[in-house]
Specification:
The radius of gyration is 20 Å and the shape is flat. It has a single domain, classed as Dodecin subunit-like. It has one helix at 27-51; strands at 7-19, 54-62, 65-74, 83-89, 94-108, 111-117. The strands form 2 sheets. Strands 1, 4, 5 and 6 form a 4-stranded antiparallel sheet that branches. A two-stranded antiparallel ribbon has the order 2-3. 21% of the residues lie in helices and 50% in strands. The chain is an alpha+beta fold. The two termini are 26 Å apart. It is built from 1 helix and 6 strands; from the N terminus they run βαβββββ.
Length: 121
Amino acid sequence: MNSTHNHRVVTFRVTGKGLEPENALTKGEAILMAERAAVADGYRQLVEKVRGVYVDAYMKAGRGSVNQDTIQVQTQSWLRGTEVMEITQADYGITLARLRLRINFSKKGMVWWPVGIADKG
């Protein structure tokens, strides 16, 4: 069996968004906080793509109308090898962070399993 058919690199790309907070003490602090928020949002998106999301939904209805509607979304993972490709300032105080994660997958039987971080390329 040819080993190239049993190994694949999958690249995940996301764009995180952050907003400059109004309560920042200086413009510089606001920019740094927005950059950090954008990167954190990018990490969250990557975890959602790689590991999925646990959704807990509850709705209570009575007399033909919804009395209560609650949706909680949760995800958790250990991420390693994520690259922050670019951070840019957009309009209205919004900061964008482009992130990339490359993962090696190996085929075992009929299932593809993540086996490690791919080379940067």
